[in-house]
Amino acid sequence: IWMARCFEATRQRCCRLEQDGHRAREQLARVEAERAALEVKLKHARNQVEVEMKKRHRAEAELEKQERKLQLVLELLMREPWGNEALSREQCSVLSALAGRRLGATLAPIRRSSAVDESCQSVLSHSDISYDCTEDDVVRS
């Protein structure tokens, strides 16, 4: 009788462990599916960040190009004698104020978006955004 009870206790414990193992495998499958979905989202987000960074760099380059053109026009207007005659006093004062402060310096503070502060390192700086495939090389069982 004692041996039968021991066998029954062992059988019940094995059944519980088997159920626990089944639940753990189900949970593992759910977590792996969630991880895969999050990896896809991360890949899309990284691609979007890269696209936006390229757009931003192009826009900044175009802004600098336009600033240089405007500075040259201002300098030309201020140097030419006919420029001062053709312009009103108000226009001349505005142009001399712009030329005096150097146009590039007046527009520089608005160059960066106020929504994104890149003056200091954040926890997730753009330099940290890179996809590392080393974890993908690990053989999963």
UniProtKB/TrEMBL annotation:
- Gene Ontology terms: biological process: mitotic cytokinesis; mitotic spindle midzone assembly; Rho protein signal transduction
Q: Which organism is it from?
A: Grantiella picta
Q: Which residues form a coiled coil?
A: 21-80
- Source domain of life: Eukaryota
Q: What is this protein called?
A: RGAP1 protein
State the UniProt keywords alphabetically. Coiled coil
Q: Where are the transmembrane segments?
A: none
Q: What molecular function does GO assign, one term?
A: GTPase activator activity
Q: Which GO terms describe its cellular component?
A: centralspindlin complex; cleavage furrow; midbody; nucleus; spindle midzone
